Prior knowledge:
This protein is of the alpha+beta class. It is 34% helix and 31% strand. A hairpin with a 4-residue loop joins β5 and β6. It is globular, with a radius of gyration of 15 Å. This is DUF2550 family protein. It comes from Streptomyces carpaticus.
Amino acid sequence: MAALIAAGLTAWLFRRRVARRAEAAAQGDVIRVPCLLMHPGRQGRWLRGRLLIGPGTVEWKGGTRAGAALTLPAGLRQVGMRSPSLREAMKINGGARIVECESAEGAVLIAVLPNELGHVLGALSRAA
């Protein structure tokens, strides 16, 4: 019974946080979208962090020491979107969507949960 209550509370808190982020984005505030990034400077490694998205801003804020010094490459634009492969799903959330991007430095992958996908796609289209 306690596990069921804990699961319900967790789901409610998650939905509440997503709703608040959507409200802040609608008001034009800068929001922090949790995601994973595969940067050309760190090939083969998913880096945890957040995308700071605002009306004129798209920035990477690394959540680990390895990703803290990185910035998003210049000329970042979306070229595709897909679900994770079986191998990728073992490292990242299998329900995530991977946004494939091109940049001046090479290919960039951004893994984000479906409920945050609209924020990321909108920001990338404005940045292009």
